[in-house]
């Protein structure tokens, strides 16, 4: 690399960032960084640099970087001198190309972004867009991002004596990814070197005559960049296009300056990264300065989880509905009390086993569809699906209980009740499972025709690096389309109406019969828990915070557990009576 201009490299740094230069001094020795100087608001040695160097590394903040470029515009050599390649560390193009006004050496300076571009040939920017210490995706260098991060943490900590820091003072920052940046600079240098024969043959240009503003020459270099494959400081290096992002991305911009109207503009001509982490389009609600990684669970996972959830909650619903019925007049109990009680105990046993099966298998099923889910969904995946689908089961419970209460109210005033005896408990059980099956079919249809509905997703929102921002983890699940939102709005309305009606009907039935049967308190508890749990679920989903989501999870878990425990204790005497009756008959 000591040819084609790379033997004339200078480096400017903020004294607060000096340790990044000393830590990787082997790299600078290799590329022959022969001029290293600190800079500040009052000291920018451009005169010395312009005499001997063409490639300039800059390790400073955004504000000082703009001041340096403005000074470069005012201090630029006479026409005929070579223009200069600037390489900025940890800056974005939006931060760099901004109008600036400041004072230097007792004199006021101001520049437009076009004037700042005029003194540059090309610009390489190092962008730290995403830092995922816990990611398990394998990168192009053969390590996971988490392992890669740990390795370079150790590399920095091993050089603390060079940076005058103790291990207690050392704090990791996004600049720990600087080795990737250096490899990207090497990639640019290699692409220039390998393109020199094409430049000479097709454009009659040497590397010393090449300018980034030449679009055809730039296309040749970009082609060589796309073919690049070499062993760098961080491992095997290969070019990746702009559709992928990583812990660090290096972009190369060409500066097109028009002397006729004194205007300049920059355009991206190449990007380098060293990771295989896919990036989905950002959501509309996220500012443009944020970057999003969205991991979607395939709709098939929801289908797999849906069936056992609805089955186990369906058993629970059926038992409560049968318990609401008056078994003293039940033809099932009158004809075969053993059968009725064994049905109850068997349903509870199957429901309990199905519920445990869902909790155990949901974590495994979710982790199969996404490698990242093993870290992020290990807790959320088990309970969020239970919470989400319990809303549907609660809707089924309320609707079926509503039918039962209406039937009981009708039977009180019906003088010909004996003629309708065949519609009592047996028919109500059919109604319950019919509604449950219909609900299941509707849910399956919505999932298959509108995949965003009820698709659980994990979103990592990471702000553009500013020195302190850490990743923000959001958990979102629920509706993903206008049609689904309208569907949920209808469900909410129906649940409110049915919930209030059920309480009224329960009280009305109790007063008409003038009997205090024990299930009235459980009945009201079920209705209240289901309705409030549904509203809490909707609110937490719309807000999208992890805290609220955990509140909903705890509430729904408490609701299901309480109903299960209460029901078991209420049915226990009946089960004992059935077993005693069965033993007496034997």
Automatic annotation (TrEMBL):
Name assigned to this protein: Gamma-aminobutyric acid type B receptor subunit 2
Places the protein is found: Membrane
TM helices/strands, residue ranges: 296-322, 342-365, 377-407, 427-449, 489-508, 520-540, 546-572
UniProt GO BP: gamma-aminobutyric acid signaling pathway
Annotated Gene Ontology cellular component terms: G protein-coupled receptor heterodimeric complex
Keyword RNA-binding (UniProt): no
Every G-protein coupled receptors family 3 profile domain range: 384-579
Topology class, membrane: Multi-pass membrane protein
Protein's UniProt keywords contain Transmembrane: yes
An annotated Gene Ontology molecular function: G protein-coupled GABA receptor activity
Alphabetical keyword list: G-protein coupled receptor, Glycoprotein, Membrane, Receptor, Transducer, Transmembrane, Transmembrane helix
Family annotation (InterPro entries): ANF_lig-bd_rcpt, GPCR3_GABA-B, GPCR_3_C, Peripla_BP_I
């Amino acid at each position: 690399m000591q040819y084609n201009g790379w033997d004339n490299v200078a480096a400017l740094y903020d004294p607060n960032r000096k340790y990044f230069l000393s830590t990787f001094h082997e790299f600078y020795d290799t590329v022959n960084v022969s001029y290293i100087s600190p800079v500040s608001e009052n000291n920018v040695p451009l005169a010395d640099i312009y005499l001997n160097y063409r490639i300039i590394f800059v390790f400073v903040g955004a504000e000082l970087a703009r001041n340096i470029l403005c000074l470069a515009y005012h201090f630029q050599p006479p026409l005929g001198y070579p223009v200069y390649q600037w390489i900025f560390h940890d800056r974005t193009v939006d931060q760099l190309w901004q109008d600036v006004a400041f004072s230097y050496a007792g004199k006021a300076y101001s520049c437009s972004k076009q004037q700042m571009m005029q003194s540059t040939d090309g610009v390489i920017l190092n962008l730290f867009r995403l830092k995922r210490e816990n990611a398990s995706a394998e990168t192009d260098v053969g390590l996971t991002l988490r392992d890669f991060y740990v390795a370079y943490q150790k590399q920095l900590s091993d050089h603390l004596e060079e940076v005058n820091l103790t291990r207690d003072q050392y704090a990791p920052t996004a600049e720990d990814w600087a080795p990737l940046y250096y490899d990207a600079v090497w990639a640019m240098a290699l692409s220039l070197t390998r393109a020199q024969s094409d430049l000479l043959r097709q454009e009659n240009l040497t590397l010393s005559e090449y300018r980034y503003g030449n679009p055809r020459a730039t296309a040749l270099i970009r082609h060589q960049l796309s073919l690049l494959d070499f062993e760098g400081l961080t491992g095997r290096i290969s070019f990746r296009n702009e559709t992928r992002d990583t812990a660090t991305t290096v972009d190369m911009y060409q500066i097109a300056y028009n002397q006729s109207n004194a205007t300049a503009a920059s355009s991206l001509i190449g990007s380098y990264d060293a990771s295989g982490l896919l990036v989905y389009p950002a959501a509309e609600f996220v500012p443009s300065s944020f970057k999003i990684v969205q991991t979607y669970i395939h709709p098939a996972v929801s289908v797999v989880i849906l069936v056992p959830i609805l089955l186990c909650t369906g058993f629970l619903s059926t038992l409560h509905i049968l318990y609401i019925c008056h078994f003293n007049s039940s033809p099932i109990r009158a004809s075969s009390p053993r059968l009725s009680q064994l049905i109850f105990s068997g349903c509870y046993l199957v429901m309990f086993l199905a519920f445990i099966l869902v909790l155990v298998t949901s974590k495994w099923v979710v982790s199969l569809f996404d490698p990242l889910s093993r870290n992020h969904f290990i807790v959320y995946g088990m309970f969020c699906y239970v919470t989400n689908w319990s809303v549907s089961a609660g809707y089924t419970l309320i609707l079926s209980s509503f039918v039962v209460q209406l039937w009981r109210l009708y039977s009180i005033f019906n003088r010909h009740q004996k003629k309708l005896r065949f519609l009592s408990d047996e028919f109500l059980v059919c109604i319950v499972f019919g509604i449950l099956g219909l609900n299941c079919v509707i849910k399956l249809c919505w999932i298959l025709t509108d995949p965003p509905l009820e698709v659980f997703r994990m979103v990592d929102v990471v702000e553009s690096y500013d020195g302190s921002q850490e990743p923000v983890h959001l958990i979102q699940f629920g509706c993903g389309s206008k049609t689904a939102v309208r569907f949920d709005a209808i469900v909410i309305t129906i649940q409110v109406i049915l919930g209030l009606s059920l309480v009224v009907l329960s009280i009305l039935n109790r007063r008409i019969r003038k009997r205090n049967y024990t299930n009235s308190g459980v009945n009201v508890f079920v209705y209240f828990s289901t309705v409030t749990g549904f509203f809490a679920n909707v609110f937490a989903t719309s807000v999208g915070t992890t805290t609220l989501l955990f509140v909903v999870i705890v509430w729904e878990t408490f609701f299901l557990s309480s109903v299960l425990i209460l029901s078991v204790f209420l049915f226990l005497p009946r089960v004992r009576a059935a077993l005693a009756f069965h033993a007496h008959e034997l």
